[in-house]
Amino acid sequence: MTTALPREADPAEITAQHAQLTRTWGTGQSLFERLATVDHKIVARRYVITAFVFFVLAGVLALLMRIQLAQPDSHLIDPDRYNQLFTMHGTTMMFLFAVPIMEAIAVYLVPLMCGTRNISFPRLNAFSYWVFLFGGVMIWIAFLMNAGPETGWFSYVPLAGPEYSPGKRTDFWAQMVTFTEVAALAVAVELIATILKQRAPGMTLARMPLFLWAMLVTSFMVIIAMPAVMLASSFLIADRLIGTHFFNPVEGGDALLWQHLFWFFGHPEVYIIFLPALGMVSSIVITFARRTIFAYTLMVLALVTTGLLAFGLWVHHMFATGLPHLGSSFYTAASMMIAIPSGMQIFAWIATLWDGKPRFMTPLLFVIGFIVIFVLGGLTGVMLASVPLDLQLHDTYFVVAHFHYVLIGGAVFPLFAAFYYWFPKFTGRKLSERLGRWNFWLFFIGFNVTFFPMHILGLAGMPRRVYTYADGLGWESLNLLSTLGALMIGASVLLFIVNAARSLKQGEPAGDNPWGASTLEWATSSPPPPYNFMHIPVVTGREALWQPEPRQVLEGLSPAHREVLCTSALAAVPDIRQHSAEPSIWPFWTAIATAIWFIASIFDARAVLWGSLPVAVCLIAWMWPTPPRVLQQRTAP
Amino acid sequence: MYSRCLASLLLLGCTLLAGCERETRAFHEEAPAINDVSPTDFRAGGTPRPVAKNPQAAEYERNAFHISEGKRYYEWYNCYSCHAAGGGDIGPPLMDDEWRYGGEIEQIFSSIVEGRPNGMPSFAGRIPEQQVWEIAAYVRSMSGNAAKDAVPSRGDEIKTTKPLTQVPPTPERSEPPRSNR
Amino acid sequence: MKPRIVGDVSSLPDAAFSHRSLIWWGVLGFILIEGTVFVLAGGAYFFLMNHSTPWPPHRVPPELLLGTCFTVLMMLSEIPNVWADRAAHGEHLRQTRIGLALMTLIGLALMVIRYFEFQTLNVSWDDNAYGSIVWALLFLHTVHLVTDWVDTLVLTVFAHMHDLERTHFSDVADNCLYWHFVAIAWLPIYALLYWVPRMMK
Amino acid sequence: MSGRKHICAALVVLLAGCSGQQAALDAAGDQAATIGDLWTLMLWVCGFMYLLVLIFLAHAIWRARHALDAEPLTHGSGSRAEHPLRMALGGWVGLIVVGLFVLSLATFFIDRSLAQARTDDALKIKVTAAQWWWKVEYEGMAPDQRVVTANELRLPVGQPALLELHAEDVIHSLWIPNLGGKEDLIPGRINSLLLTPRREGEYRGQCAEFCGLQHAKMALDATVMNPDAFTRWRQQQLTPAPAPSTPEQIRGHEIFMSGPCAACHQIAGTPASGQTGPNLTHLASRRTIAAGARPYSFEDLRDWLRDPQSVKPGNHMPVVQLSDSDLNALTAYLDSLK
Question: Nearest Cβ partner of B158 from A239, A244, A251?
Answer without folding.
Answer: A251
